Amino acid sequence: MFLIYLLGVVLFFSFLTNFAFRKIFKSLSWVDKPDGVKKLHKNDIPLSGGISFIASLIFAVLIFNFFAGVNFNLSWNGFFVDDSLKQDNFLNQNLDNKVDLIGNDSFEIDVINIDENSQAVVVINKKTFETELMEVYKDESGSFNVKGNGFEAMSNYVQDTLLPPKVTVNINGNESTYYQKINVNVPPFFIWMLITGIFLALITLIDDLWGLSVPTRFVSQALASLILITQSGLYIDNLGNLFGLGSIELNPALGVLFTIFCVIGILNAFNWIDGFNGGLTSQFLVGVTAPLILLSKNNSLFIEQIYLFLVICFLPYALMNLKVIGKRFVIFMGDHGSMFCGYIVAWCLIYFAMETEYMNPITAVWIVGFVLFNAISTIIIRIVNKRSPLISDRSHIHHALDRMGLKGLRVSFVVLVISSMLALTGVMLELIGASELVSMLLLVFISLIFLRYRFNLENS
Q1: Residue 286's closest CA among 426, 90, 431?
Q2: What is the end-to-end Cα distance of the chain in Å, rounded?
Q3: Across the chain, how many H-helices and E-strands are there?
Q4: Of 342, 343, 369, 373, which Cα lies nearest the Cα of 429?
Q5: DSSP states of 102-118 as a string?
């Protein structure tokens, strides 16, 4: 129940953030202007969706950090890749007996720290800061008992509806009230992913507003990925058992380069699909919700909560972009927002494929299959027509659907259905235990059909 309360607070803040940044961007003329060729919308649309989404995520992290005993390890590991950094502390934490409290005392007693060994440092006198290391344990009734040298404490545990569990601590006759934190151990990867994603988004925001060269954009994308790799130790070190002959292992140098290539490819593919209302919205939601089917089968409550916060922070943008709350409030993500979304989806899939046993690498490709099919087919069509693959034009799948007569949300619906079917196919193959070779061959077959269909649409 308390998690729902926190999600409600985050959702309310996200709406305020989106409305506020929309007004700011519009007043500064930081908007997407129609050109009658590619950009067919009628009015100037603020490019505030990306920065609003990021601000909402930062707020979610801060409020979650305040109410949860989060272990953020942000030590700088230097620019090197070391397999020893790749420690999977995912869901292996025994937090049953850990107690972490937010104090609100009226006496000269303050619990300032409780570590994973269930020991508490208790400040007995706030003026002299005399401290005592005390043992903390939970009895069968759920109450916490604290004992130390010359000190004894008892506590009453009260579960409120809209607040964290309340703990009343009585130490040697002096009573204080605290709120228990929700204890969560966050792998450093997720925080570094957010930090580097924000760095990338800020660089791309400059490109949105004033323009940057193509090499500058690619360098910033590669640098963000490299920092995340060196700080978390996470990269693609195997491609799975694609040919039935055992896992295809990659050495560190090749693995790092291949990971950077994949991340850059996916985040740009997300940017390319963001050419119509609902395009990025549907693909981001598919990218973050499809893995939940696999996670729900593995009791991965912590990661499910992270994904839930992602969806909640993204929801106000989705509703405004799809004009659900009125045409006058429509906003766009901008390149900084679409690339940030692609960056988050790409790295989350890499994490699950490499660091957990929940997902094979080929399943991750299924989940982002539609955006990759669109990007690859668009590049091929441009090359065949002797155009630069990096020059923007109307050769994307949504442009082809528009030429067929599908308009507005109908295009979004068709794209959502196709991408969802692709993602669910990959997930179902994973769930039924199909071999990675079968999954890869089926994916290649579908991609060839998709490419043939794209050429037929383009020629017609």
Answers
A1: 426
A2: 55
A3: 13, 12
A4: 369
A5: EE--SSS-EEEEE-TTS
Question: Which residues, 6 or more positions from 191, have their beta carbon under 8 angstroms from its beta carbon?
Answer: 61, 72, 74
Per residue in 50-64, pLDDT tens?
999 999 999 988 887
Residue pLDDT, tens place only, 180-207: 555 556 677 888 999 999 999 999 999 9
Strands 68-70 and 182-184 come out as: parallel
Query: Do residues 163 and 2 touch, judged by C-beta distance below 8 A?
Result: yes
| Token pair belonging to 408 | 């507005």
Name 184's bridge partners.
70
- The whole-angstrom separation of Cα 177 and Cα 145 is 14
Q: What are phi and psi of 170, to 5 degrees?
A: -115, 110
CA–CA dist 189, 228 (Å, integer): 7
Conformation bin of residue 240: beta by default, left when phi > 0, alpha when psi is -120 to 50: left
Task: Give strand ranges (E) for 48-181.
Answer: 68-70, 101-103, 110-114, 119-125, 130-138, 144-148, 151-158, 166-171, 174-180
Question: How far is C-alpha 33 from the chain's CA centre?
Answer: 29
Q: What is the DSSP letter of 238?
A: B
Q: Which residues of 305-318 are buried (b: 16+ CB within 10 A; e: fewer)?
A: bbbbbbbbbbbbbb
Structure tokens at 114: 């409780």
Tokens describing residue 111: 């619990």
Neighbours of 53 (CB within 10 A): 29
Instruction: Enter the tokens of residue 394.
Output: 């109307």
Tell me if 205 sits within 8 A of 336, measured CB to CB: yes
Angle between helices 436-459 and 409-431 (to 10 degrees): 160
Is the pLDDT confidence value at 39 over 80?
no
* CA angle (177, 181, 184) in 5-degree steps: 165
Distance CA 46, CA 18 (A): 11
Give residue 162's pLDDT band: very low, low, confident or very high (50, 70, 90).
low
Instruction: Give residue for tokens 């570590």.
Output: 115
Q: What is the pLDDT of residues 362-404, one digit of tens each?
A: 999 999 999 999 999 989 988 888 888 877 777 788 878 878 8
